[in-house]
TrEMBL record:
Provenance organism: Lutibacter aestuarii
Keyword Membrane: yes
Taxon lineage: Bacteria, Pseudomonadati, Bacteroidota, Flavobacteriia, Flavobacteriales
InterPro entries found in the cross-reference section: Bac_surfAg_D15, D15-like
Annotated localization: Membrane
Tree of life domain: Bacteria
Limits of the Bacterial surface antigen (D15) domain: 608-760
Coiled-coil portions: none
Protein name from the UniProt record: BamA/TamA family outer membrane protein
């Protein structure tokens, strides 16, 4: 049985994972050092007999016993069930890897070829078997590379004068240089570079197979000759231009031979349609980069295909070229449109420490090409029923509800009163999105209404870089039934009533709780009754959080860098920076003020603050099905002038299935405080996570993780307690740490996740009890989620 492979290069053990990919036979998969798939396989018996009649004859006593307890049919069913269980173990487990010398020789061949391709033409590869007890062995692959061959001289033989002139003008970018290693990858890269260069210089007929290399090697050096023919199939290479461009806006294979009934000529382009033309040529040209009377370029063909697909208006985009008699080209862009209207229905089941149970539904409607410029209008209505903790003493299931609607218009261009082509070119995929939304939430008396309005401009400056500028991101939040607050939260009213009767001999009502706290719970009361003072201030703070009416007129810019090649990429990094400014222009224009001298609009306080968020993620593909993932986030929000605090909807919280998983959402902080509030928020947040993801068995995957972070208050609010505030490096000891493990089931199209978080370091506990005080299953936080946490 093979238990280990090792690659030894020139006497030293290899640490390059890439070379390990050339090994044909690998040991059984280990999960944290244990061959779990092998153990699972061993639970099955591949010799388990399914022939029921044969089993009866060979096991008469067992058959007699089972048939006396069960019927003959049930006994047969039991046998079949056991057989199927054994087959399931064998299918989902991993059979022991028995060493195969033929596969070892294949590996020797793979490694020899690899080093040959790297320029080690005299490399020698062998393998040795190292016996281990209990019929197990290790294989060492030994490689002696000898000296590396390098390039001594480079010559060219380009028969076509057209190609030769293009090559000379761009030769400084060649991958093949004197004294460079004689590596196959350099020649492949050079072949691809030249092919792209010629085809993007107008040589439509060029094919990279026309490029060959010859080499003469001696004494570990090689003389290289680049050879390019002057024709393909006897037809000389030429620079060709595009004469005509036809755009078929309703192309279908079944109707392609039908007569064209609508034709429009616009700026040298011909737009054709079998029916009435439904697209405005002016706007459609924003996504077409192939231009008449310009030389052919592969890059403009790909750009056109990419941007037309990005409109989300066409099912397929096909671009074909035809050579004309005068060596000119005709480009035909065939567009098959999607259905103009589409309807979608979705449902969702949610759970958190705030919403014990939530059932929601959404009905969405889309209208494509609204104004004949490939615009998309989306309209949605959503509603949900919740089992909300906000209805504190109401034990009715699904005791709250929320309804809302959103409408958005997406334009595949910038919508501005001036031309923006010189600022952001059409190749940068400019888009403008207008969004309006509203929602009404009812929590058994304490009702809340929200209005949102967003104007968002997005564009790309490269394959990996994206930008978003929200000229407006406004939110208006209004509480419709504030006076009923303490009728709903009766437990809090009872605590205040107890303080009022015990220390002040007063009876209060649900409508004068806050005035009572403001008039009586002061610094003098704190000196004699610190516990009761804190209870009262927490209740007041919670009241202010939940009943806050606010207008948030924000401007935001977001920069995103993501070097992931595609959704299958497992080794990449991600960075996002966002800066938000709220209330500057609105407070400048407003002349209204409330009794607290706070500027208002429509009698609602205007939030004025600046907020910055920084997020970084890095993923390392350690080995097959093993990934190390890191995430870090830092956010700071600073209120000023018209505001003393950050609106609750724009504040930071921590905890939950995608955050600090050992604490429930809103359940931690700020700082080392333990307020007892259900909604703990701050205006400074830091969190960092490290997660090791690995395969356990087929679609079942596992993870080990460590999360660390907290929120703090960085205002000078007199309400905030000292332990809630951030005081420089000293406050880093308030960072909470949670660790745990997770089980994930990968269904290919969706990943279901269960993470178990354990409180490792709790900053609010007394000194000496912070570490591992509640590190047990009694205090485990179970996090259910869809997809990975980050």
């Amino acid at each position: 049985m093979l238990i280990d492979n090792a690659i030894i290069v020139n006497g030293k053990k290899n640490v390059d994972n890439e070379i390990n990919d050339y090994i044909v036979q690998r040991p059984n998969q280990l999960v944290l050092g244990v061959p779990i798939p092998l153990h699972f396989y061993n639970l099955g018996n591949k010799n388990y007999e399914t022939n029921y009649d044969k089993w009866k004859l060979e096991n008469p006593n067992w058959y007699k016993f089972t048939s006396s307890v069960f019927s003959d049919k049930q006994t047969r069913g039991l046998r079949n069930f056991k057989y199927n269980m054994h087959q399931w173990y064998l299918k989902n487990g991993e059979a022991p890897v028995i060493f195969d010398s033929k596969k070892a020789l294949q590996t020797v061949g793979n490694l020899t070829q690899h080093y040959y391709n790297e320029g080690y033409f005299k490399a020698k590869v062998s393998f040795e078997e190292v016996a281990v007890k209990n019929k197990k062995l290790k294989i060492n692959y030994k490689i002696e590379t000898d000296k590396l061959f390098t390039i001594d001289s480079i010559s060219t033989n380009i028969e076509s004068k057209v190609l030769d002139s293009i090559y000379i003008a761009n030769s400084k970018h060649s991958f093949i240089k004197k004294e460079s290693p004689f590596k196959l990858s350099l020649f492949v890269n050079e072949q691809n570079r030249l092919s792209d260069l010629f085809r993007n210089s107008g040589v439509y007929r060029f094919n990279k197979n026309a490029i060959t290399f010859e080499a003469d090697s001696s004494n570990f050096t090689s003389d290289v000759a680049l050879i390019i023919n002057d024709s393909i199939g006897g037809v000389p290479f030429k620079i060709q231009k595009i004469k005509r461009i036809n755009v078929f806006t309703d192309y279908s294979y079944n109707t392609k031979d039908n007569p064209v009934n609508d034709t429009v000529q616009y700026e040298g382009y011909t737009f054709l349609s079998h029916k009435k033309l439904k697209y405005n040529p002016k706007y459609l040209l924003n996504t077409i980069f192939i231009e008449p009377n310009e030389v052919y370029k592969d890059i403009t063909r790909e750009l056109t295909r990419k941007h037309l697909r990005g409109l989300n208006n066409f099912r397929s985009v096909d671009i074909k070229y035809t050579e004309l008699e005068d060596d000119m080209l005709e480009a035909n862009i065939n567009l098959t449109p999607l259905e103009k209207y589409s309807v979608g229905i979705s449902t969702e089941l949610t759970h958190s420490n705030i919403r014990q149970l939530g059932i929601s539904g959404k009905l969405s409607f889309s209208n494509r090409n609204v104004f004949k410029g490939a615009e998309i209008l989306n309209f949605s209505i959503q509603g949900s029923f919740l089992d909300s903790k906000d209805a504190a003493d109401n034990e009715t299931l699904l005791n709250a509800w929320e309804v809302g609607g959103d409408v958005s218009l997406e334009l595949p261009r910038f919508f501005l009163p001036f031309k923006s082509d010189k600022i952001v070119q059409k190749s940068n995929s400019p888009k403008t999105t207008f969004t309006l939304g509203t929602s009404l939430q009812k929590n058994i008396g304490l009702d809340k209404q929200r209005f949102t309005g967003i104007v968002d401009y997005t564009w790309e400056t490269s394959k990996y870089e994206k930008h978003s500028f929200q000229l407006l991101n406004a939110q208006f939040i209004q509480n419709l039934n504030v006076d009923s607050y303490f009728d709903i939260y009766k437990s809090e009213f009872n605590e205040i009533q107890n303080i009022a009767s015990t220390y002040f001999n007063q009876e209060i009502t649900t409508t004068n709780v806050i005035p009572f706290i403001n008039d009586n719970i002061d610094a003098n009361f704190e000196q004699t009754n610190p516990t009761e003072f804190r209870i009262a201030q927490n209740i007041k703070k919670r009241h202010n959080i939940i009943t806050e009416d606010v207008l948030v007129p924000a401007i935001a810019y977001t920069y995103t860098l993501n070097n992931s090649e595609n959704y299958k990429d497992k080794d990449f990094s991600f960075f996002r920076a966002r800066i938000v400014s709220s209330g500057n222009l609105t407070t400048l224009l407003s002349n209204e003020k409330d009794e607290n001298n706070v500027k208002t609009l429509l009698k609602t306080p205007i939030a004025q603050y600046i907020r910055t968020d920084l997020e970084y993620k890095r993923f390392w593909n350690i080995s097959l099905e093993n990934i190390l993932a890191f995430r870090s986030f830092l956010g700071i929000a600073i209120p000023y002038n018209n505001s003393k605090t950050i609106p609750f909807s724009r504040s930071y919280f921590i905890g939950g299935p995608n955050d600090l998983r050992a604490w429930r959402i809103y359940n931690l902080g700020p700082g080392s405080s333990q307020s007892g509030l259900e909604y703990n928020v701050g205006n400074l947040k830091f969190i960092s996570s490290l997660e090791y993801r690995f395969k356990i068995l087929n679609s079942i995957k596992g993870a080990l993780f460590v999360d660390a972070g907290n929120i703090w208050d960085i205002t000078n609010s007199s309400v905030s307690l000292p332990e809630e505030k951030f005081n420089g490096f000293k406050s880093l000891q308030d960072i909470a740490i949670g660790s745990g493990f997770g089980i994930r089931y990968d269904l290919s199209f969706i990943l279901l996740r269960l993470d178990l978080g354990f409180k490792t370091y709790e900053p609010y506990l007394p000194k000496g009890e912070k570490w591992f005080n509640n590190y047990n299953f009694n205090h485990t936080v179970y996090n259910f989620g869809i997809s990975y946490p980050f």
